[in-house]
Amino acid sequence: MFKVGDYIVHGRNGVCQVKDITHIDLSGADKDQLYYTLIPVHSENRKIFYPVDSDKVVMRSVISREEAESIVKDMDQIKPMWIENEKSRELRYKEAIGSADCQKLIGVIKALYERNHERMAQGKRITFVDDRYLKEAKKNLFDEFAIALDIREDEVEDYIKSHK
To answer: What is the dihedral sign for C-alpha 98, 102, 105, 107?
Structure first.
């Protein structure tokens, strides 16, 4: 069980801080169930109520500084998640982001950078779907790295470039 104040990763919601662990009085909610009150780091006016004992969404502690440094050091070894089929691509990217796995997020980001580069070479723009998943994967990865490395989110990309 997480404690109040902990930073955690909550599926596609990304990094959240546990603000409370309590019973909630909302219609449809089990009044005897304990819930985490989660605040996403980039949506401080939004609250997520999630059952303490549920496993429907990946929920884990933010990686440590050492884990983040190791991932950055080995980043060149992570393969792009390249998927030709449009429908399969969207599903696989959604699954990868929902897994909250840093290496999968990097695979998505690398594939979408490559795909965008190819499209630009053909005089095309990035697709709406690709742009949405690229932004979501980067946000979730950079938010977690910022917490783990104790830097601002807008410093993460420069950190990665200078430490690979």
So the answer is: negative
Tokens for 157? 């990309």
**pLDDT, mean of residues 25-44:** 84
Report the SS3 class of residue 53.
coil
Determine the Cα–Cα distance for residues 50 and 70; give it in Å rounded to an integer: 31
Distance from C-alpha of 152 to C-alpha of 138, rounded to nearest angstrom: 14
With a threshold of 0.85, does the pTM exceed it?
yes
- Quick one: 66 exposed, middle or buried, by C-beta within 10 A (0-12, 13-18, 19+)? exposed
Tokens of 75: 């980043």
Label residue 158 by pLDDT band (50, 70, 90).
Answer: very high
Run of H or E residues at 50: strand 48-51
pLDDT of 164 over the 80 cut: no
